[in-house]
Design brief:
eleven-stranded mixed sheet; 353 residues; alpha/beta; 14% strand; globular
């Protein structure tokens, strides 16, 4: 049985058609149930498909020459959406012609077009951008929001926690994902009033939610593997993500320089190659590529603009898994259990505020 087909913005990303088609082809070779709607310049897509007959046989092309660039503002992208590869890929999800969309294009534009076309789910005020980060344990960490909402209130953070927990149950298989709020300390008195309010709401709602709320965490604990979901506002989340990515590149570059500095170092590299290869795999962002906009009436996945074919294939695999596991329906079910009433501050807090 095949999955609903995935709409691919073939023009997005730093290299556009070549990498997007190669990535989709790689995903198709790994999972033969995948079917695609490839959106973009038809002659260029057809030329790229010549090397990938397996993908060609499982794909349909939707032609458009319009492309949203990395420099386009969201307002500009919205005006041209229905004539661009990104906009038409999302429109295919709205119309039911595809089950989900993948794009490596402009993040702000993708967010704006997706939100306008698909709208937010009932019970969700704002969608959030969630991604998987590597940890020291055998599971990844779901982190959100990573940039969709620079400013949030406590209610937004609680909704992010519900959506992140639903995603984590898909990604980790854990029935009760361990959820924490990102803060400047782990003590209950630390952080802004917004964070303390969100913590109180989550604690009060714990019995109604399929999650374990474990309070606050700090950014240096993200990779420890003792939690499954970390929730924050989009500004802090994006800063934390860029710091993690920068540190990973720093460590990789430092090791490369160290191992090439002398003959003795090169011999040391050969001896430690299995360990360094494991580290390289763990730190390679292509192996964790594919961030999803949670909270929309449809699945939209953002691939990193600089991802290689393996990275795009990973984003496609994330998309397919979200489709297969019905993550949107899971979020709806969790929200229905709350009924909206549990997203208020506990009375004790309101009186002491």
């Amino acid at each position: 049985m095949s999955l609903p087909r995935i709409a691919v913005d073939a023009m997005g990303g730093d290299e556009g058609v070549r990498v997007m088609i190669e990535g989709a082809a790689l995903a198709r070779r790994r999972h033969d149930r995948f079917k695609f709607l490839l959106v973009g310049d038809e002659p260029r897509i057809k030329a790229a498909l010549e090397k990938h007959p397996n993908l060609r046989a499982s794909s349909e092309i939707l032609h458009t020459e319009g492309v949203i660039s990395g420099e386009d503002k969201p307002s500009q992208a919205l005006r041209r959406a229905k004539s661009t590869s990104m906009g038409l890929a999302i429109e295919a999800v709205k119309a039911g012609d595809a089950g989900a969309a993948v794009s490596a294009g402009n993040t702000g534009a993708l967010m704006a077009i997706s939100k306008l076309a698909l709208r937010t789910m009932p019970g969700i005020d704002r969608p959030a951008l969630a991604a998987l980060l590597p940890t020291l344990e055998d599971h990844d960490l779901v982190m959100l929001d990573l940039g969709a909402n620079a400013e949030c209130d406590a209610r937004n953070l609680v909704q992010f926690a519900i959506m992140g927990a639903a995603y984590a149950r898909v990604a980790t298989g854990r029935d009760q994902p361990r959820v924490r709020l990102l803060n400047i300390g782990t003590e209950e008195t630390k952080g802004t009033e917004m964070l303390r309010d969100a913590a109180a709401m989550l604690k009060a709602s714990a019995s109604d939610l399929s999650m374990s709320f474990d309070g606050f965490t700090e950014a240096d604990k993200l990779g420890h593997g003792d939690m499954d979901v970390v929730v924050t506002d989009g500004f802090s989340g994006n800063v934390a993500l860029k710091a993690v990515e920068g540190t990973a590149r720093f460590v990789a570059d430092l090791l490369r320089r160290g191992f090439s500095s002398s003959l003795r170092s090169k011999i040391g590299f050969l001896i430690s190659k299995p360990a360094t290869e494991l580290l390289k795999h763990h730190l390679d962002p292509n192996n964790h590529n594919g961030a999803v906009f949670l909270g929309l009436n449809g699945i939209v996945v953002k691939s990193h603009g600089g991802a290689n074919a393996a990275g795009v294939a990973n984003a496609v695999a994330v998309t397919a898994r979200l489709l297969e596991e019905n993550v949107t329906e899971r979020i709806s079910a969790d929200l229905a259990r709350l009924g909206g009433t549990s997203l208020r501050k506990p009375k004790v807090q309101e009186e002491s505020a």
